[in-house]
Recover the amino acids of this structure.
C-alpha cells in the first residue's frame, strides 16, 4: 500500500477520546472536563462565602488565631444594624450613589444624543470621550489628587479663572465640605462615557422608519423625543443605572486614593469602613456580618439587573 | 386583579415583581437618612426579597 500524505495524517491523528477512555459515557467525560472549573468555583467563591456566613455569627479575630472563638448568634448583625455610625456611612454612600448616577445619566444621555448625529470626526470624538473609563481607578485617583492641589492643581486654577475665587482659598480634598463632591466629580468624569455608550446602543437600536412615520404625522421634534426616543432608550438607561448603582455601592479604590475616607468621616463609604473593620481593627466576625449585609444588598440589586438585562435582550 | 390571581396561582411575573419591590424597598430603607428603625429592618426586607426572587424565578410563566 502506498504511503500517501492523507494516510500519514490519518495515522498521526490521535484516536477519539471516548475510545481511549473506554468504559466512560459521554456524560461522564463531560463532567470530567467541567469538574476542575466547578472545583475552582467552589474553592474560590462558594466556600469563602459559606465561611464568611459562619464567621459572622462568631467573635473571631483573624489577628488572634489562638483565642477561643465564641458563637455570638445574631449579635454582630444587631450591633451593625443599630449603629448610628454605620447608618451615617450608608447615607454617605447613598449621597455618592444618588449624585453620581443622576449626573452620569444626564450627561451620558446628552453626549449620546449629540454623538448619534452624523458629522465629521464623529469616531475620533467618541474615542476621546471614552478614554477616561479605560484608565485604572488607581491612576485616576492619583492624577486627580494632583488636579485638586490648592496651590498647583489645574482644577482649582480653572475654578479661579471661571469664578474669580482664589485657587488657594479652598481645598477640594480637605475640610470644608467639598470632599464628598470631589469624589462625585471624579467618578462622573470617569464613568459618564460608559453610560453614554449604553445610551448610544439604545439610540442606534431605534429604526429610522419610526421617526419617518412620526414626521408624516407632523409630530414636532420635541414630541418625537418624549414619545419615541425616551421610552425606547429607557430600558437601556435602566440597565446603565443598575450597573452603575451596583458598581458604586462597592466603590473602594478610587475614593481611598483620593480621600482615604476623610477628612474625618466625610467620604467614608460602606466598603471603606468594612475594610477598616476587617483589616485595621481586626474584628473579623463583626466585619463578616457587615460584608454579608452588603453582599445581600448587591446580590438583590444584581438579580434585578439580570432580569432587566434579559428584558432588553428580548427586545 | 390579574396581579392577585397571578400571586395565588404562583406565576413568575407577579411574584418577581413583588420580590423586586421588596429588594428596592430594602435598599431605600438601608440608605435613607430619616428613621433608624427603617435602617435596622432594611437587611431583613432585602434578604426576604432576594430569597423570594431566587425561589420565584423558578415559577412557571
Amino acid at each position: 500500500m502506498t504511503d500517501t500524505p492523507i494516510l500519514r495524517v490519518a495515522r498521526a491523528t490521535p484516536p477519539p477520546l471516548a475510545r481511549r477512555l473506554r468504559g466512560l459515557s459521554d456524560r461522564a467525560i463531560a463532567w470530567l472536563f467541567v469538574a476542575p472549573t466547578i472545583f475552582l468555583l467552589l474553592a474560590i467563591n462558594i466556600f469563602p462565602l459559606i465561611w464568611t456566613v459562619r464567621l459572622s455569627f462568631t467573635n473571631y479575630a483573624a489577628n488572634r488565631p489562638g483565642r477561643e472563638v465564641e458563637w455570638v448568634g445574631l449579635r454582630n448583625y444587631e450591633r451593625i444594624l443599630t449603629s448610628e455610625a454605620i447608618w451615617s456611612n450608608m447615607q454617605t454612600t447613598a449621597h455618592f450613589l444618588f449624585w453620581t448616577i443622576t449626573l452620569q445619566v444626564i450627561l451620558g444621555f446628552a453626549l449620546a444624543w449629540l454623538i448619534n448625529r452624523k458629522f465629521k470626526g464623529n469616531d475620533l470624538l467618541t474615542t476621546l470621550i471614552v478614554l477616561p473609563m479605560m484608565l485604572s481607578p488607581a491612576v485616576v485617583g492619583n492624577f486627580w489628587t494632583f488636579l485638586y492641589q490648592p496651590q498647583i492643581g489645574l482644577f482649582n486654577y480653572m475654578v479661579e479663572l471661571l469664578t474669580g475665587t482664589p485657587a488657594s482659598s479652598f481645598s477640594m480634598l480637605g475640610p470644608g465640605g467639598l470632599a464628598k463632591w470631589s469624589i462625585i466629580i471624579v467618578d462622573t468624569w470617569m464613568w459618564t462615557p460608559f453610560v453614554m455608550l449604553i445610551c448610544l446602543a439604545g439610540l442606534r437600536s431605534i429604526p429610522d422608519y419610526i421617526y419617518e412615520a412620526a414626521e408624516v404625522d407632523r409630530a414636532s421634534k420635541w414630541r418625537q423625543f418624549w414619545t419615541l426616543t425616551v421610552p425606547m432608550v429607557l430600558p437601556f438607561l435602566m440597565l446603565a443605572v443598575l450597573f452603575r448603582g451596583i458598581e458604586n455601592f462597592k466603590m473602594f479604590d478610587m475614593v481611598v486614593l483620593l480621600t482615604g475616607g476623610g477628612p474625618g468621616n466625610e467620604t467614608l463609604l460602606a466598603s471603606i469602613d468594612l475594610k477598616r473593620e476587617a483589616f485595621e481593627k481586626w474584628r473579623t466576625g463583626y466585619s463578616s456580618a457587615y460584608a454579608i449585609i452588603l453582599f445581600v444588598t448587591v446580590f438583590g440589586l444584581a438579580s434585578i439587573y439580570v432580569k432587566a438585562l434579559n428584558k432588553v435582550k428580548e427586545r | 386583579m390579574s396581579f392577585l390571581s397571578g400571586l395565588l396561582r404562583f406565576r413568575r411575573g407577579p411574584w418577581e415583581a413583588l420580590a423586586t419591590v421588596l429588594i428596592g424597598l430594602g435598599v431605600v430603607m438601608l440608605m435613607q437618612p430619616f428613621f433608624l428603625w427603617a435602617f435596622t429592618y432594611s437587611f431583613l426586607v432585602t434578604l426576604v426579597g432576594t430569597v423570594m426572587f431566587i425561589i420565584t424565578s423558578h415559577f412557571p410563566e
Remarks:
- The domain at 77-314 of chain A is CATH 1.10.3720.10 (MetI-like fold).
- Chain A has two domains: 5-55, 77-314.
- DSSP finds 14 helices and no strands in chain A.
- Chain A touches chain B at residues 77, 81-82, 84, 87, 90-91, 93-94, 97, 293, 296-297, 299-301, 303-304, 307 (CB under 8 Å).
